[in-house]
Amino acid sequence: NMYQQRIPREKSAAMFAEALEYFPGGVNSPVRAFRSVSGPPLFIEQAKGSRMQDVDGNVFLDFCCSWGPLIHGHANEYIEEKVMKTVVKGTSFGTPNEMGNRLGKLILDNHPYVERLRFVSSGTEAVMSAIRLARGVTGRNKILKFDGCYHGHVDSLLVKAGSGLATFGTSSSAGVPESVAADTLILPLNDRDLLEEILSKHAHEIACIIVEPIPANNGLLIQDPSWLKCLRIKAYKHNVLLIFDEVISGFRVGFAGAAGYYDVKPDIITFGKVIGGGFPVGAYAASKEIMDYIAPVGPVYQAGTLSANPVAMAAGLAALELCLTPGFYELQAEKTHAFATALEAYAREKGYPMHVPHIGSIFWLAFGTDRITRSDQIDPANMEYFKMIHHELLQTGVYLGPSGYEVGFISGAHSVGDLEEAVGKIKAAMDVAFA
Ligand code: PMP
């Protein structure tokens, strides 16, 4: 049996069986259920730095990093200390607080493209609020998104393309009204002519274009910088707002995220993940002029009971302070590049159909040999390779997010030695998967 367990997994299996009695599918977020890989999900008990330990006592080098927030690894001592000092003074007051100011200042002082921001509690909330803001500013209802970009479980973004090349969407989830989906236009990534055609026809009813500038939820679909610049130019030309969803890329590929990386200034940016240092934080940000549409100054309503609570702000502040350490991003990118190119060299040497797109400290195990920049270039049949690699790696102590469509993250806590260890283990897993 290819998926035989060579590590103890009984306690995780028992806890998952119990969880099935409490939560739909046993989980509180779907991919966690391990449905596209083998075995029960691991129940993690504790983690430190680059490694996590499950309830059966297995230890894994972690490349999921809680799906992106943990850019400094698990239980970072600097973040922990700031959180501990804050938490004993009370966890939430529902009032303005100094920690919020300090995180706001740190971000705005170091991010050249935004002047005001509003903290929320998740990436989804940030995107939902940014869309409402764009609609409020423009007085238009329709939005334009790209196939292969994920923006959280916002109703108007849980849509898929209908038949035809550029269409108004149809709902991709039960519970999302077709009337809502019909306000979302879906285009393929990097089709400049079609974008121009659609904007010429529909710009007067479109509030915004929303894009993941570094699409990282459907594989890692690294885009041509010139296309992102083209989006900017066309949004100006047709007078629609441009939203960069930087929930993954923000503070990850550089302090100024993808906007800084590509030097493209969007009108609104959404943040999540890294911004909260491992706590539930999101934010949306823009110019003062645009953000002044938000209540209590302007007519666009948005609020949150736990928004900018001091504990989450303290964690985010500590995390982003560490990000500003000189050379931090360069070092993460260097380590990630060495890791990815070592795997690619091995694939080439052995003739295995795999390559490793990477940017900053984000990487993806991609199957096939051609560069993949659109979701329709991903062959679902190749996910069988991922499943085997994922299983093999669990047996040898490496944890990847449990889906071949998900990217991996490298943190400041991943040492060069950790990465060399992982390369050796991934090579061995490739030998099994491609045998
Ligand atoms: N936008 C992007 C680009 C994301 O990657 C995600 C989460 N993977 C979201 C939005 C939603 O964020 P959250 O899960 O915090 O709601």
UniProtKB/TrEMBL annotation:
The modification N6-(pyridoxal phosphate)lysine is found at K273. It is found in: Cytoplasm. It catalyses: (S)-4-amino-5-oxopentanoate = 5-aminolevulinate. Its EC number is 5.4.3.8. Its cofactor is pyridoxal 5'-phosphate. HAMAP family: HemL_aminotrans_3. This is Glutamate-1-semialdehyde 2,1-aminomutase. It comes from Neolewinella antarctica. The gene is hemL.
